[in-house]
Write a structure and sequence with these properties.
Elements lengths: L2 H11 L20 E8 L8 E4 L10 H5 L2 E3 L2 E5 L5 E3 L2 H14 L7 H14 L11 E10 L11 E11 L4 E9 L2 E9 L4 E6 L17 H4 L2 H9 L4 E5 L7 E4 L3 E6 L2 E5 L9 H12 L3 E5 L3 H5 L3 E6 L3 E10 L2 E4 L7 E7 H5 L33 H9 L19 H4 L1
Parallel strand pairs: 10-11, 10-17, 14-15
Antiparallel strand pairs: 1-2, 1-7, 3-6, 4-5, 4-6, 6-7, 8-9, 9-19, 11-12, 13-14, 13-16, 16-17, 17-18
Helix pairs in contact: 3-4
């Protein structure tokens, strides 16, 4: 066993993991050790949050969240590197979005700094539940809700900010192998069984209306899509693609993710106009696509355009980036040809392995995008941004056709000392 392999083995043994069969976890609730709780009155400010054992909470039957749906939630993930340190992807963006939603629902909210600090504290308290590299991620669910008792239609008198976490498995099967390919030795990251999703355009139900709450992550937005989604799944579709409620001809979003349309070298996505959630993965995809030279348009997209697209894909925290294989509209099914099929390969330079940045989960570390909080374990290791952004962009929205045998080399990263 070489020195590098021995060092990696020591690092893996240095952190404790929960007694879980990591190969079998799905996307569901697994009770962890701690949750974070912070409260404040309506006209007060959040302070003095605490970590409490994970468990049920006491809630008044007349609480604002139960009676009037006064509640928001966020979703983000933590990933583990091979050296045991933990990465968070753009958590400050979730904090900003929660504050925007809270203002719309007449709720006080933690500051962005309080939000990020609470996320860190919760993840670190549950760090043994962060899956090993390549086995999944720790899903983080912040909640903000009116927990004070209220009978009249009015803002609740007290609010609770709560964070719980659960390890979740990968959506796609992943495997790795080491290859030698001039001019550089690489790790190869293989996604197998990457099945495109099949959407149906919904005409009878609408996710949001102008002037409503479609642009914030309020809990009611998701309950309202369950019927349409259930009907679609009963017919064999993966999910529903919603149109605007006024003209009933412009794309909005899928039940829980944003949508992108690719035509030639142009990537288009519905503009944020108050009825579409400003997704953080969506924002990141746009940033990276622009930097790669693609023309990106945020605008109204008619249903006719999507049916004539070269490719369509969805983005979100849970789905990351998912290709759309078909869209059905008025009984007519449009199939989008998959350039690679059910497998694609992305190569990572060995310099990444030397930095402890070997492929894990679905993230891509980019030197130019300071998107991952550094020093999540305060261990001196710097962190970088999500691997999936470039990997998936190059797979689905690039004008270059990548075949199974094609290897993409990511430019070498600088040394750790240079990044500190």
């Amino acid at each position: 066993m070489g020195l590098g392999a021995k060092l990696r083995r020591v690092r893996r043994q240095a952190f404790e993991l929960a007694d879980v069969c990591w190969d079998d976890i799905g996307f569901g609730i697994i009770p962890t050790d701690y949750m974070y709780v912070m409260r404040c009155p309506r006209d007060g400010e959040f302070s003095n949050g605490t970590l409490e054992p994970y468990g049920n909470i006491e809630l008044s039957p007349s609480s604002g969240v139960l009676n009037y749906g006064q509640g928001l939630f966020e979703g983000l993930k933590a990933y583990r590197k091979e050296d045991g340190s933990i990465l968070l992807f753009r958590p400050e963006e979730n904090g900003v979005r929660m504050r925007m939603g809270a203002e719309r629902l007449c709720m006080p909210a933690p500051t962005v700094e309080q939000f990020v600090d609470a996320i860190k504290a919760t993840v670190l308290a549950n760090k043994r539940w962060v899956p090993p590299p390549g086995k999944g991620s720790l899903y983080i669910r912040p909640l903000l809700m009116g927990t004070g008792a209220v009978l009249e239609l009015a803002p609740a008198p007290e609010y609770t900010f709560l964070i719980y976490v659960s390890p979740v498995g990968n959506y796609f099967k992943e495997s790795y192998r080491r290859i030698s390919s001039p001019p550089i030795e690489s790790w190869v990251f293989v996604h197998e069984g990457l099945a495109p999703i099949n959407l149906v355009i919904q005409n009878d139900y609408h996710r949001a209306t102008p002037g409503g709450t479609g642009g914030i992550k309020t809990i009611g937005n998701y309950a309202s899509v369950l019927k349409a989604q259930s009907e679609a799944k009963e017919k064999g579709y993966s999910d529903v693609l919603y149109l605007d409620s006024v003209h009933k001809k412009y794309l909005e979003e899928v039940s829980s993710c944003n949508v992108f349309v690719v035509k030639d070298n142009t990537i288009s996505t519905p503009a944020i106009r108050g009825t579409i959630l400003p997704g953080i993965t969506r924002k990141s995809i746009i940033d990276v696509a622009v930097s790669l030279g693609f023309q990106v348009e945020e605008r109204l997209i008619s249903v006719e355009e999507v049916l004539d697209a070269d490719e369509v894909f969805c983005t979100g925290t849970a789905v990351v980036v998912s290709p759309v294989g078909s869209i059905t509209y008025h009984g007519k099914r449009i199939v989008f040809e998959q350039m690679v099929g059910d497998m694609f390969i992305v190569g990572y330079p060995m310099e990444m392995a030397e930095l402890g940045l070997c492929p894990n989960n679905s993230t891509l570390f980019l030197q130019d995008y300071k998107w991952v909080l550094p020093r999540i374990r305060w261990d001196g290791h710097c962190s970088y941004a999500k691997k999936v952004v470039i990997g998936y962009l190059l797979r689905w929205i690039s004008a270059i056709v990548f075949f199974v045998t094609r290897i993409i080399h990511v430019p070498a990263l600088p040394s750790l000392s240079a990044m500190m």
